[in-house]
Design goal:
The structure holds 2 protein chains of 2 kinds. Chain A is mostly helical. Chain A has 13 helices and 2 strands, in the order αββαααααααααααα. Chain A is globular. Chain B has a two-stranded antiparallel ribbon.
């Protein structure tokens, strides 16, 4: 009996081991190992021949110097990354919720709308960006000429005053697909009896329904997106590589793009340590903030009765 | 009394007006997406001169020549592993795209499924820690680890290797939205079927492959399609990690950037885009209903 139990247990353990061993090995090497190596690298100096020596905190000093004055690209990248998240929070998120609510309520054209909003997900981002660029190049100047007689209309993606705003507009425009699938699905999982009970209790318009029923019940989904979005503030390059590849205007830089350029352009390993030190500083700054953000959302989020 | 009723009816009107405004905004948004798509399709059937004269107009003459031309000129020159310059045609880019997208997505979803199943259905030492670690990994931003990954891959000799890139594609299979979706789905499956199978002499592999996985296939298919679409359209992975294996997406990116230098007209470029888009459109049309029903994300407790 005992032997049979042991064999059964062994077989179960073998099964579990076979399922989790390889994913955990990958995690150990390509997540833990890479990040550990990144921490080590932050304290190293690598010469052009690849020889490694201890650099102490020199790379950190260099990065902070670049951030505080010598490297204007780094500063503008940091500010723009924060702006991108705030815009997402203030403009996109309310629109996602309101549009999703309408789709959940099966408004006019709801099936067609859900089908069409997936276009940015289906077709290549390069094509979306190309169409957007051509629209700005050809259609907008034509419209400006006909409406206001404006003959010299600026290139909105390259002009210093408009380029960042144009990039932000594109980001918002192309960002709806996942949200308009996930949020209505989350709303659909709400028990209709709860909504009916709410109506009996006087919840008789969309704003009350959103405030007292929908938002509290889809809050876990909502907070997941808010937290992962916050975590990606400094690593998301947005559409910059698609629009400009290596030549984005100074005004549009963000941290994700800045790091992309550094990795692609650093021709040998000697430039990596400063980047690793910078990454470590940013991680130390943003990681606790993300966890604090999650804690705040969990603590002060709506209670479901 | 009358005042209250009047207030209510005013509020009702305002609410209706707001709802109409929201529908109008959504319709305008959808039209803006559709117009782009239709413009690309129509332009791909226009002659170069017709397109140059009026970029936003209906064709004066419909032509398939751009597609023939796209198959002929859609090629790019890149540095190979040994440093020499190599010309990649549409056929080789297509093969790289198919091999990479199909197998990488398969490996990634398989790893998610393994971890999600083991963690949802079995108790083992460190399981709760692993779940919390997954949430931690998911919400902890790691910035600037690309240089380290590049160095590690070069040191291990797996930089610019298609096979290694596929096999090592998912290093956080117990974190992320797709893991959570599968974890929740496995958790909701009853264990009674498995118990019956185990009593009847089946083993844990039989239970997974013959009972649990078939029930979970629709959810796995949704994740497969979403990951496939993202990978098929991704060019930056190939640009950074697989420069000797250009995919159609990277090819298109370079092709459209160099189009004017290589005297390739915009209708031909757009035809190339349509050719590359066809597999994703077919896949989406085939799986649209599943995605609409099954794609859901829960909270981050842990």
């Amino acid at each position: 009996m005992k032997k049979a139990l042991t064999t059964k247990k062994m077989s179960e353990r073998l099964f579990i081991g076979s399922f989790i061993f390889y994913p955990l090995l990958l995690f150990a090497v390509f997540y833990v190992g890479v990040n550990f190596n990144s921490i080590l690298m932050a304290f190293e100096f690598i010469d052009f021949e690849g020889n490694v020596t201890w650099a102490g905190f020199e790379n950190f000093k260099l990065f902070i110097e670049q951030l505080t004055g010598e490297n204007p690209y780094l500063k503008v990248s940091l500010i723009n990354s924060l702006k991108m998240y705030i815009i997402n929070l203030v403009i996109c998120m309310p629109l996602y919720i309101l549009f999703s609510y309408m789709l959940f309520k099966k408004c006019m054209f709801h099936k067609s709308i859900r089908f069409v909003v997936m276009i940015p997900q289906i077709i290549s981002g390069v094509l979306m960006a190309l169409v957007f660029t051509k629209f700005l190049d050809w259609a907008i100047p034509d419209i400006a000429l006909q409406l206001w007689g404006e003959e010299e209309f600026p290139n909105l993606l390259k002009h210093p005053d408009y380029s960042f705003g144009t990039v932000l507009f594109y980001m918002i425009w192309s960002s709806f697909s996942t949200s308009l699938i996930v949020y209505p699905n989350a709303m659909n999982s709400i028990d209709p009896e709860i909504i009916e009970a709410g109506q009996i209790d006087g919840i008789n318009n969309m704003f009350l329904e959103l405030r007292y029923i929908i938002l509290p019940l889809i809050y876990p989904t909502l907070s997941t997106f808010l937290i992962t979005g916050f975590a990606g503030i400094l690593s998301n390059p947005g559409p910059l590589t698609t629009f400009y590849l290596y030549d984005a205007p100074y005004e549009t830089y963000n941290m994700g793009y800045y790091y992309f350029l550094q990795v692609v352009h650093v021709s040998n390993q000697s430039g990596y340590p400063v980047l690793a030190a910078g990454g470590l500083i940013m991680t130390i700054l943003v990681a606790p903030l993300t966890h604090l953000f999650k804690w705040i959302l969990d603590k002060f989020g709506p209670e479901v009765d | 009394m009358n005042k209250t009723t009047e207030k209510r009816s005013l509020a009702g009107i305002a609410e209706q007006a707001f709802k109409i405004l929201l529908i109008v905004l959504m319709v305008i948004y959808c039209l803006s997406l559709l117009i782009c798509f239709v413009w690309v399709v129509i332009s791909s059937f226009r002659t170069y001169i017709d397109f140059t004269l009026h970029a936003f107009a209906l064709p004066e003459e419909w032509t398939f020549d751009n597609y023939k031309e796209a198959f002929r000129v859609f090629n790019i020159t890149l540095k190979a592993k040994n440093g020499s310059k190599v010309l990649y045609g549409i056929d080789s880019m297509f093969i790289y795209s198919v091999i990479y997208s199909v197998s990488r997505t398969f490996v990634s979803v398989a790893l998610y499924a393994c971890m999600a199943y083991a963690m949802a259905k079995y108790n083992f030492f460190g399981k709760n820690f692993l779940y919390s670690l997954g949430i931690f990994v998911m919400i902890t931003p790691i910035i600037g680890s690309q240089p380290s990954l590049m160095q590690l891959k070069k040191d291990m000799g797996i930089y610019n290797s298609m096979l290694a890139s596929i096999l090592t594609c998912n290093s956080t299979a117990f974190a992320g939205m797709h893991f959570l979706l599968l974890y929740g789905a496995f958790k909701s499956l009853p264990w009674a079927y498995a118990e019956s199978a185990l009593i009847d002499g089946g083993n844990h592999w039989t239970v997974f492959f013959k009972i649990m996985l078939p029930m979970m296939l629709p959810t796995c298919a949704v994740i497969y399609v979403l990951e496939f679409l993202a990978i098929w359209n991704d060019y930056s992975t190939f640009l950074i990690w697989l420069p000797s294996y250009p995919s159609l997406s990277l090819g298109l990116f370079i092709f459209q950037n160099d189009a004017s230098r290589n005297m390739v007209g915009m209708p031909t470029v757009l035809s190339a885009f349509i050719i590359v888009m066809i597999p994703t459109i077919i896949l989406y049309l085939a799986s649209q209903k599943l995605i609409m029903e099954r794609f859901n994300v829960g909270g981050l407790k842990g």
